Amino acid sequence: MNGIINILKPPGMTSHDVVSFLRKRLNIKKIGHTGTLDPGAAGVLPICIGKATKIVEYITSQDKTYICEVTFGKVTDTFDKYGKIIEEYNNDFELEYNELKKVTDEFVGEIEQTPPTYSAIKINGQRAYELARRGESFAIPSRKVYIYSIDILKVYQKSALLKIHCSKGTYIRSLCNDLGKKVGYGAYMSFLLRTQSGKFTIDNSVLLDDITIENIKKIMLTIDDVLEYPIIKLNENQTKKFLNGAFLEMNLEDKYYRIYSNNETFLGIGIIQKNRLKPDKILI
Fold it and tell me: Which reaction does this chain catalyze (predicted)?
């Protein structure tokens, strides 16, 4: 059994919980998730089965879209509603669309972002949230992420609903916290729904309870279907060389490609660098 399931993760489960549930229900060992969702968040969570676990890194690297609610006036230690309140803005205020739009526009493009202390980031081999729960002091290095767009869907008196299109590795909790700092009232993330991850959207996602051993093959997507790379078809001689790890001369743009044999069999992922195609991941 090899393929990918587009799961609609419910709030209250960790991404690992989803994997464990499916491992037991489908009686399979080789299974993994792509792109962790916080336990309190819901939304698109692609799950890879069998040989598809070899492409987790490629799916995880794709862009994401979220709908989130950011609540202003308070700051929590986790940057979301589940944390302890550590700051509170006591003066009365009311959000205005134009004010918020001016601030959100400043975060569109490449930004420097520091992940939350309570996150799955590893610090010297240990998860940051484990160190934080033990009260240990540590620093998480900032990193560059890309925000393609922030759309304001609705503004309330002290909160706003946002649609965010971003690169991999973006922490929406951190973005909400940074927005709060910029506005001057403080803020935390009070709701999060991932609506898209690469080619996977919430419209074609599947509920966990709807998955059975009997219908899994109808639900599961093939490995080559979910990759968003252009296609290269090889002749018989080129196919043999590619499978043996040889480089092939090709005058094409430097990027990843889906590679097919002369008989239309999907072979794996190749990468072209300086007019040479080399195997990056053999999947046959």
Answer: uridine(55) in tRNA = pseudouridine(55) in tRNA
- Show which of 196, 212, 238 is a domain's final residue: 196
Choice between 125 and 231, residue whose per-residue pLDDT is larger: 231
Q: Which of 111, 75, 78 is nearest to 90 (CA)?
A: 75
What torsion, rounded to 10 degrees, do the Cα atoms 137, 140, 141, 145 define?
Answer: -160
CB 205 within 8 A of CB 199: no
Tally of structural domains, the chain: 3
pLDDT (tens digit per residue) in 115-126: 888 777 788 777
CA–CA separation, 112 vs 172, rounded Å? 13
* Distance, CA of 102 to CA of 191 (rounded, Å): 22
Q: In this structure, what CATH number is given to the domain that contains residue 243?
A: 2.30.130.10
Q: Which domain holds residue 44?
A: 3-62+199-225
3-class DSSP state for residue 243?
helix
CA-nearest of 2, 39, 34 to 17 is: 39
Q: Which residues are catalytic?
A: 38
Segment 75-93, tens digit of pLDDT: 999 999 999 999 999 888 8
Q: How far apart are CA 135 and CA 126, in angstroms?
A: 14
What are the backbone dihedrals phi and psi of residue 45, each rounded to the nearest 5 degrees, phi first? -140, 95
Residues 6+ apart with CB under 8 A from 198: 46, 59, 62, 63, 64, 226, 228
pTM over 0.70: yes
